[in-house]
Design brief:
This protein is mostly helical. 72% of the residues lie in helices and 2% in strands. Strands 1-2 form a two-stranded parallel ribbon. The longest helix is centred in the middle third of the chain and has 47 residues, at 51-97.
Length: 177
């Protein structure tokens, strides 16, 4: 029995030594530039978004806001599970100190806890990998926004039309088919 418990402790130690990669933090993005009122004819230059460009930027901005909220929730869940794993790990370490005097039932309980820990650790590692992949996707989206939208001016009436158009599309997408 004692050898079985030590084997599990060795596996547990190896997994713990591998560790978990640190979470990649999401990149910050800039905002659109100021809105300007049109006085007659409009001039669109490299620093002023056309109505079509503005719509793409507003859609991308909304997608980024939703994605950032999801990343925040995922990060909180990962941190919470990391704490749970730490508590289980401490229980395993404490139980391993008394491995020599453990009964068969205690050894069975210990082995079950090790299997539980390893299964949770595997799921947690997958969640961390998924989170890290999503931060790379987020970074690409932020780079796209910063390159094409950040700091650029737009005409206020163009923005009003874009917002109205998008809100109508959102309303239509919620209607039952």
């Amino acid at each position: 029995m004692n050898q079985s418990r030590r084997a599990f402790a060795t596996v547990l130690l190896c997994i713990s030594l591998v560790g978990l990669p640190p979470s990649t933090h999401a990149r910050r993005r800039s905002r659109l530039g100021p809105g300007v009122r049109s006085r007659g004819s409009k001039a669109y230059d490299s620093g002023t978004l056309t109505s079509a460009e503005l719509e793409k930027c507003v859609v991308l901005d909304r997608r980024l806001e939703r994605f950032e909220a999801e990343l925040q929730a995922d990060s909180a869940a990962i941190d919470e599970e990391r704490e749970r794993l730490g508590r289980i790990r401490r229980r395993l370490d404490d139980a391993n100190k008394y491995a020599g005097s453990a009964s068969e039932g205690e050894t069975r309980d210990y082995n079950r806890l090790v299997r539980n820990y390893n299964a949770r650790l595997k799921k947690h590692q997958q969640a961390v990998d998924d989170y890290n992949m999503n931060t790379y996707v987020h970074k690409a989206m932020v780079d796209e926004f910063n390159k094409g939208c950040a700091g650029k001016r737009y005409y206020e009436d163009d923005m009003a039309r874009v917002v109205e158009s998008l809100s109508q599309r959102d309303d239509l997408s919620r209607l039952p088919k």
